């Protein structure tokens, strides 16, 4: 897999209908995982979208999620740039450069879904998410 760059939109409890709307407008395949899929399915917010991805026939990729319980939703700053792929060295290099002088919200580390993930805001105030696909071992 090559590295990809695409927008990532954060919503406040309505990511699923938004992604379904975008699918209806743009076509394509929509895959949604909820917070409950990777944690306690009875917890508050478990039915919220932890990660949704729409891939269209035109080659567009749009990712989105609901704001996790306990995190602030900040309209106007709810779009980030997502870098993803499986080249650990390349993506780690991007992460190291993008996070210098900024704020790291989630350190680049192995996550419960098996990938390595980090989230930061660069020194210009732009949000970045880096996801390195886990090995298939």
TrEMBL record:
Residues 5-129 form the Glyoxalase/fosfomycin resistance/dioxygenase domain. InterPro entries: Glyas_Bleomycin-R_OHBP_Dase (IPR029068), Glyas_Fos-R_dOase_dom (IPR004360), PhnB-like (IPR028973). This is Glyoxalase/fosfomycin resistance/dioxygenase domain-containing protein. It comes from Streptomyces smaragdinus. The lineage of its organism: Bacteria, Bacillati, Actinomycetota, Actinomycetes, Kitasatosporales.
